[in-house]
Amino acid sequence: MRRIDLKKAHTAGLATIRDINRQIVLNYVREREPISRAAIARESALQRSTVSAIVDALQTEGLVEEIGEGESTGGRPPTLLRLRTAGAIAIGVSVTPSETTIGTSDLAGRVLSQETFPTDPDANETFGRVIDGIQRLMRQQGESIESIGVSLPGLIDPSTGVAIYVPYFKWRDLPVARMLSAMTSLPVTIDNDANAVALAELWFGRPEVSDARDFILVLAAEGVGTGIVFDGQVYRGERGAAGEFGHMIIGTHAPVPCSCGNRDCWEAFSSERAALARYQKLKRDDGESRIDFKELVDRALAGESEARTALVDMALCLGIGISNLVVGFSPEAVVVGGEIARAWPLVEDALKETIEHSVRRGLPSARILPSTLGNEPTLMGALSLVLASKFASSSFAV
Ligand SMILES: [Zn+2]
Fold it and tell me: How far, in Å, from the CA of 225 to the mean position of ligand 1?
């Protein structure tokens, strides 16, 4: 049972009930499309007239559309509904230490277009190109774009839209939301990459994840970040700083320095950079070994033993950190995102064995699952910052 937040109680009341019913109907359409008004009423136990009135409003808002008639069960055949598919509604910007991707999606999270360029350590260069890309997309996509979401690899304050610290480039106190909003006249939401991907898993992940009320997303990329979902929402902590488990200490003398500079952080053992450093050592830095992580996964999947060893070592180290989180939080599931998810058959055993080893017998263990968000999880995260606000209700926080 959640304690009522008295500071937000003034927003509760009749409007809240209407808002909650609206979210229920919208999410039935989202998850069960194509679905009829009668089926929503039957499954949600809302009044048929309430459902019809809400669907009318959702059609007017351009969120839901009719797509013809379904099978008759005796009387008049029912009209089926789905989320509106016409046009891009969101722009997502994923900034990673190596590259920046800008993409558009429709309401259902289907990516419609995307472009990628190398991230420049100079923030003005990177965000200059981001603004050019957004303006180009807005010219192509017309009026339908409503909002922009931005995923960044660092300490982010979503409430002020400021990137407090991005360690890879030493960006400090960058007013990203204000900057982009001023140049595009659109609302901008920003968040830390792992939190954004956790939000994407919550809304667009496989049902085992999206139905779980409590899960942890571990994003293993150039760095290692975690997004914690408690009771169906991302836990942010004070100024959005929660989830910095990448810097918990799990050993000494890691193969690479952490983005924070230390050599004892989880990230320094378990990131893509750590796996690449191990691989180069195994290959005695023979010139063929200076590759990117995608190529490392390709080589491992093709059967190269040094590549496989480097990935399994990365998985063992990831497993140590994850077992600490499982022991501490007892989540329903832990989802591992990043390119390593593509190598799941090679790393699954190493991960699970490390974790089972540390969880006490008889205590519940979490399911460990690969992300199913595809090869651009942080772009999906950035888009989710916009899309989730369409489907979530702020009133639920009361
Ligand atoms: Zn660190």
Answer: 10
Which residues, 6+ apart, have CB-to-CB distance to 142 below 8 Å? 87
- Could you report the per-residue pLDDT of 348-362, keeping only the tens digit for each? 999 999 888 877 766
Transcribe 90-144 into DSSP letters: EEEEEE-SSEEEEEEE-TT--EEEEEEEEPPSSHHHHHHHHHHHHHHHHHHHGGG
Per cent of the chain over pLDDT 90 is: 70
Give dist(CA 133, CA 116) in Å, integer. Answer: 10
Cβ-count burial 71-82 (b if 16+ within 10 Å, e if not): eeeeeeebebbb
pTM attached to this predicted model: 0.90
- Read off the DSSP letter of residue 215: E
Angle, nearest 10°, between helix axes 37-44 and 14-32? 120
Distance from residue 268's CA to the centre of ligand 1 (Å) = 7
- Residue 242 Cα to ligand 1 middle (Å): 14
Cβ neighbours of 299 (radius 10 Å) = 20
Per-residue tokens: 51: 């459902």
Measured in Å, residue 39 CA sits from the centre of ligand 1 at 51
Report which of 328, 92, 86 is spatially closest to residue 200, judged by C-alpha positions. Answer: 92
- Read off the amino acid at residue 8: K
Following DSSP, what letter does each residue of 171-200 receive, concatenated? EEEE-HHHHHHHHH-S-EEEEEHHHHHHHH
